[in-house]
Amino acid sequence: MTLAGSTGGALFTAINCGRRITGRRLWGEAIASIVQRRAAAAGIEGDIARHSLHAEFATSCADAGVELTTWMQQTRHKSVAVAAGYVRRQSAWRNNAAARLDL
Predict the structure, then answer these.
(1) 3-state SS of 61-89?
(2) Does residue 5 have a pLDDT over 70?
(3) CA dist list (Å): 74 to 22, 33, 48
(4) What would the mean pLDDT of 16-37 be, rounded to a whole number?
(5) How far is CA 80 from CA 3, 37, 85, in A?
(6) What is the 3-state secondary structure (H, E, C) of 39-64?
(7) Fewer CB near the last or first residue (10 Å), C or N of the chain?
(8) pLDDT-derived band of residue 21, with 50, 70 and 90 as boundaries?
C-alpha cells in the first residue's frame, strides 16, 4: 500500500500494462490465484484459498481478543454462527478462557 501511495482501500489491486497500480480491486478468483501461486513458490502445500485467508484472519482476531462483532464488520458476515465457524479450533488452546481466569 505504501508503494501505491495509499493509506486505505483494497489490499489486492490491479496493475496495468505499464506496471502502474490502478487502485481497481481484483476479483476473488484473481486473488486466490495469486495467493496459491505465491504459497506454492514459498513451499507451502495444501489448498490455500479465500476460505483459508478468512479462517486465518478470524483465528488471528480471536487469538488477539478482538470482539467477534468487530471483525464481523471487516469480513461482512451477517451471521455470528457462520463467522464463528471460521475460527480454527486449535486457537482454543492458544487463547484458553480457563487459563485467562487462572483456573
Answers:
(1) HHHCCCCHHHHHHHHCCCCHHHHHHCCCC
(2) no
(3) 23, 22, 20
(4) 82
(5) 36, 32, 8
(6) HHHCCCCCCCCHHHHHHHHHHHHHHC
(7) C
(8) confident
CA–CA gap between residue 37 and residue 58 (Å, rounded): 23
Strand, coil or helix: what is 2? coil
Q: What is the DSSP letter of 18?
A: T
**96 vs 103: CA distance, rounded Å:** 10
Amino acid at the residue 21:
I
Rg (CA), the chain: 17
Do residues 40 and 30 touch, judged by C-beta distance below 8 A? no
Query: What amino acid occupies position 60?
Result: S
Would you state the cell numbers that stand for residue 55, as one nine-digit string? 479462517
**Going by C-beta distance under 8 Å and a sequence separation of 6 or more, which residues neighbour residue 81?**
none
- Residue 9, SS3? coil
